[in-house]
Amino acid sequence: MIEEILEPENLAQAWKRVKANKGAPGIDGMTVEDFPAFARKEWPRITNAIAEGTYRPAPVRRSWIDKPDGTKRPLGIPTVLDRVIQQAVAQVLGPVFEVGFSEHSHGYRPGRSAAKAVAEMEAGWTEGRRHAVECDLKSFFDTVNHDRLMKALLEKCRCRRTLGLIGRYLRAGVVLTDGTFEATPLGVPQGGPLSPLLANSALDPLDKELEARGHKFARYADDFIVMVRSAKAANRVLAGLIRYCEGRLQLVVNRAKSRAAPLKSCAFLGYKLNQRAKLAWTEKAQHRFKEKVKEITRRNRGHRVQTVIDELRLYVRGWLNYFRFSSTYKEVLELAAWVRRRVRLYYWKQWKQPRTRRRHLLALGADPGTVHMATRSRKGYWRMSQNEIVRYALNNRWLEEQGVPDVRAIWIVLHYGKDARV
Known about the structure:
The protein is α+β, with helices and mostly antiparallel strands and 422 residues long. It has helices at 2-5, 8-21, 35-52, 80-98, 114-126, 140-143, 146-154, 160-170, 195-212, 231-247, 283-296, 305-322, 329-351, 354-363, 372-375, 381-384, 388-393, 396-401, 407-416, and strands at 60-66, 72-77, 131-136, 174-175, 181-182, 216-220, 223-228, 259-262, 271-273, 279-281. The protein is built from 19 helices and 10 strands.
């Protein structure tokens, strides 16, 4: 198998993927742009070391990303060289493991998505499963047992050199933000091309156990939900999951975030079932959306309005694309009006002086006889964004011409297709 990994065509494809994904440098500071010159000089030596089993990966660079709950998730950023090697390994091992993975596993797999995972929640209700178990694995990526993971990989990969290379990646360690080195006796560092495959391999025994018990479930990475027919069954399944995860898999279940509950009160990947048992985004997901839009349109950012609108359009389209299956038309209308109001607020702040505001309002068709009622008002920015004169001048059509995203129109097209009437 190591020969397949080191085939020139496989390595070239791996480099294309890494180059397309870009990404930050690792601990060596090498950028994606710098890599080709380095590879032309050093690649024969590196491939020879990999083939002989003497190659030693560099530690990953610790980085942090914000989580919705206010905490931070650790990321490990490998060097560009190690990203290419990991990608080459994943391209060969992926198809070997893919055929054996569960139909209920949807994360980081070809032809699968979060949308298909949440659709199983809706299908569970249709089948009469009115209760569910939400199970949260505490710091999953940081607590994966290496010995158990390597044993799971050995069942399908008999190449000792490939397994040895993977093991060295697992134990490569982390360089923290202060420059100190930290060993990694446990865990799968998030951030490398190989991490998704290793994570799915580590949790595949859980999938198989749930299948053997005949449960309806969906898993996306370390997020999963099990749907059952009664409250009693839900409590029994939760207890069984805790025993299995902490006993057999040596993973820690976060009891504060794990529970047995009615299915309609559960959330999975930002979705829930509404009163009509249709998929809808959760209140928490909408709150995160508003917080991000507020951040983008924060009135003291000082950016050009067009820069703010471009950033807003990119975020809104991405968010709506993820939640396109949400049956929340009423909420869509409210969000559409709210987003436009945030943009009006930003314009009003940018214009600052009364004379500047007067000039812009008049240019946009405001009544010269009443415009002073807006420009001389002492009301705050948020209240003025809803002022009748301001709304008349910065009307919906004009905002759309400036590039402000129309939440309603985007959602309708995503939800019903391009031929839907907006």
